[in-house]
Write a structure and sequence with these properties.
single chain; 178 residues; alpha/beta; 6 helices
Amino acid sequence: AASDVYKRQGDFRGVAEKVDYLKSLNVGTVWLMPIMESTTYHGYDVVDYQSVNPDYGTMEDFEYMLGVLHDNGIRVILDFVANHTSSSNAWFKEALADKDSKYRDYYFISEEEKTEDGWRKAENGLYYYGLYDSIMPDLNYANKNVWEDMKANAGFWLDKGVDGLSLIHISEPTRLGM
């Protein structure tokens, strides 16, 4: 079916199959938009930083593509969404559900009503900051544990062999009055 052909051209195995074409264009680097599990087509709301979006294939498919590209002298860079997670991310779900959770301070969460731009109201009545969208709550980098966990997530991909990460900007807690 036509949809299978389209999908094959945009998944990890499809990229690996096009390596000769990429080389004919003198491509030296492939820069991928976020490939982690997400709830959106664009992938900028990461549900799980150490997984791949099944629309692109499996982790084994990713590793295969990475190997083929590297074997042909092509580097791989990933967009790494560092500013926020998905509202479907386990950290955020726990942060909203349990005020004693270590993840509560991973985000900007308030019991008091917030009406400034970027503040969103959760179903449980709490307010959280999500500059870009209600499904993308911002991470609180004033919390050193956020830094450590995000460094570990970045390290996961670097350990897989990617050649670099493009980091999406990080919100400034002081700007939020936090």
